[in-house]
TrEMBL record:
Cofactor(s) essential for the protein: thiamine diphosphate
Originating species: Actinacidiphila glaucinigra
GO biological process: fatty acid alpha-oxidation; oxalate catabolic process
Full protein name: Oxalyl-CoA decarboxylase
Pfam family, one: TPP_enzyme_N
GO molecular function: magnesium ion binding; oxalyl-CoA decarboxylase activity; thiamine pyrophosphate binding
Keywords in alphabetical order: Lyase, Magnesium, Metal-binding, Thiamine pyrophosphate
Taxonomy, superkingdom: Bacteria
Start and end residues of each Thiamine pyrophosphate enzyme TPP-binding domain: 416-552
Thiamine pyrophosphate enzyme N-terminal TPP-binding domain boundaries: 22-137
Length: 583
């Protein structure tokens, strides 16, 4: 029997629908579970799936490359606490999406990559099918879980399972394989409807044991120099009020990890962000809230940390405890429940940061802020990162609703320090992997999910990884302003090739006109050579509410190798001492 095309059936919505097919069941199952947006790239066998989803009222955002669609889905998951959905075609499209799926898993963002796949019997006997690949096996190592739906009557179960796996416990990326044959399979509509279900409590609260809470309270109460580290898990948890209450009622200084900036406003009096080194070096009891003690925190090791520091860790993933340092008081549970329990089980005033410690950090902060103000005052020409980023900071300070996306090396490190955040979950960046290429995908998702303006501060190299999505931004007329720190290179634009005239490995075209490229798609392009021009362009672009791109011409000799993480380069005999071969 030949299946009616999904569009035929959609058009005949009023006729008695006796039969349904895989396409309809997928869309019905997604809608039943409140999926309202799909990010993807179409092709065989999922083109009609995207069309049908759109016809049924799901917003479909079509990208130019699956990696960017996947990054968008991941960001949507982070911002909404619901799994973001990425839709890909078989083999190459599927593989293009995998970087984003793996990155989402690494960052603990919930997403589901749904991919069409080729004929199972041909794939399994390697008969050479169109876009043949064993996608389920390929996806396994890169995600939290990978599932395949092999029968049309399992679609509801498969989708429910994928959505729950993505958001429950530690969130992450889930792969869901749907072979073409399953999408095209027909079944009785009434029977089909019975196979679908709506998830009950997809990410249930996970309460900590009372004795674990009391242990942590005791440790914090005895601390001379307590410190809280807020990570992006704390931002994700959307327990903003509870976290604020705990921080403010105990007076404990805190440092935000980059994506937790704004969870409490960066100008909060208890923020020790501007005395971070001192805070880490001297804290005697450290409470990690949704932050892993990974490379971004120097694994909790001396000399950055006090070697005698004791750690309290709040995390939903039990096996995260002790991954780097012994955790003296593990608090396994969801952040909202754990922080509530800490508030409830501690007596008023029992946990209180000693004034001397707060003053010590406050004094260091004041010194560092003054130093930074000096550096920000300088306005050399050609423009430096600081000048351009100060201009960006001043414009978006007036508009706290703006989402900030940020990637690059120097463009990332300097913007993170210069641009304060005032609202939770408004900063999205390269994250746990330090990955390049998240820029346009994250920016598109932030605009689509929130309807608010987005400023994407991008290194010129970083931008190139997802740059073609400026067409997507213009096509959907999204309020995204891309600000490129164009120093003509990866890290710097003045590196030389020691052998011949070809560009060096880190060289890019500093004369590149990203603004002109943007205008090719009908967006508004600006070129800025001074901070004043950056201010004018960004102010106008945000006021317009439409897509814009500002190419900031930065001194090619500005920037340092690898930004703030140069120490992670291997230390061989060649470093900084390369002798060219004789010709
Ligand atoms: P950062 O990079 O900001 O330091 P990480 O990504 O390293 O943050 O850490 C985030 C942590 O938050 C992960 O270990 C994850 O398991 C945890 N997490 C995510 N959501 C929750 C939640 N709702 N409750 C508790 N822990 C959570
Ligand atoms: C997927 C390696 C880290 S930072 C960077 C690269 C290529 C670009 C730095 O140059 P940019 O910034 O963006 O111009 P700036 O301001 O310092 O000049 N591939 C991937 N991820 C990473 N991290 C890299 C390569 C890298
Ligand atoms: Mg650069």
């Amino acid at each position: 029997m030949t299946a009616p095309s999904p569009l035929e059936t959609a058009a005949n919505a009023d006729a008695p629908a006796e039969l349904t097919d895989g396409y309809h069941l997928v869309v019905d199952a997604l809608k039943m579970n409140d999926v309202d947006t799909i990010y993807g790239v179409v092709g065989i066998p999922i083109t009609d799936l995207a069309r049908l989803a759109q016809a049924q009222g799901i917003r479909y955002v079509g990208f130019r490359h699956e990696s960017n669609a996947g990054h968008a889905a991941a960001a949507a998951g982070y911002l909404t606490k619901k799994a973001g959905i990425c839709l890909t075609v078989s083999a190459p499209g599927f593989l293009n999406g995998l970087v984003a799926l793996a990155n989402a898993t690494t960052n603990c963002f919930p997403m589901v990559q749904i991919s069409g796949s080729s004929e199972r019997h041909l794939v399994d006997l390697k008969q050479g099918d169109y876009e043949e690949m064993d996608q389920l096996a390929a996806a396994q190592p890169f995600c939290k879980a990978a599932y395949r739906i092999s029968r049309v009557e399992d679609i509801g179960r498969g989708i429910a399972r994928a959505l729950r796996t993505a958001v429950s416990g530690r969130p992450g990326g889930v792969y869901l394989d749907i072979p073409a044959a399953v999408l095209g399979s027909i079944m009785d509509a009434e029977e089909g409807a019975k196979t679908l279900s709506r998830l009950v409590d997809p990410a249930p609260r996970q309460l900590p044991a009372p004795e674990s809470v009391d242990r942590a309270i005791e440790l914090l109460a005895g601390a001379q120099r307590p410190l809280i580290v807020l990570g992006k898990g704390a931002a994700y948890a959307q327990a903003d009020a509870q976290i604020r209450e705990f921080v403010e009622s105990t007076g404990i200084p805190y440092v935000p990890m980059s994506m937790a900036k704004g969870l409490l406003p960066d100008d909060h009096p208890q923020s020790a962000a501007t005395a971070r080194s001192l805070a880490l070096k001297k804290a005697d009891v450290v409470m990690l809230v949704g932050a892993r003690l990974n490379w971004l925190l120097n694994h909790g090791e001396a000399p950055q940390w006090n070697p005698d520091a004791k750690f309290v860790q709040i995390d939903i993933e039990a096996k995260e405890m002790d991954s780097n340092q012994p955790i003296a008081a593990p608090l396994v549970g969801d952040i909202e429940s754990v922080v509530e329990a800490l508030i409830e089980r501690s007596k008023p005033g029992q946990i209180a940061a000693p004034a001397a410690w707060r003053e010590e950090l406050g004094a260091r902060s004041a010194q560092n802020v003054a130093k930074m103000a000096e550096r920000l005052k300088a306005d050399p020409h050609p423009m430096q990162f600081m000048g351009a980023l100060k201009a960006v900071r001043d414009v978006i300070r007036e508009r706290p609703e703006v989402y900030l996306v940020n990637e690059g090396a120097n463009a990332l490190d300097i913007a993170r320090n210069v641009i304060d955040m005032h609202v939770p979950r408004h900063r999205l960046d390269s994250g746990t992997w330090g990955v390049m290429g998240i820029g346009m995908g994250y920016a598109i998702a932030a605009a689509v999910e929130s309807g608010q303006p987005v400023v994407a501060v991008e290194g010129d190299s970083a931008f190139g990884f997802s740059g073609m999505e400026i067409e997507t931004i213009c096509r959907y007329k999204l309020p995204v302003v891309t600000v490129i720190m164009n120093n003509g290179g990866v890290y710097r634009g003045d590196d030389v090739n020691l052998y011949d005239d070809a560009p060096s490995p880190t060289t890019l075209m500093s004369a590149a006109r990203h603004d002109v490229m943007f205008e090719a798609f009908g967006g508004k392009g600006y070129r800025a050579t001074t901070p004043a021009e950056v201010t004018a362009a960004l102010t106008e672009a945000l006021a317009s509410g439409g897509p814009a791109l500002i190419d900031c011409v930065i001194d090619p000799s500005a920037g340092t190798e690898s930004g703030h993480i140069a120490h992670l380069n291997p230390k061989g005999i060649t470093v900084g001492n390369i002798t060219p071969a004789k010709k």
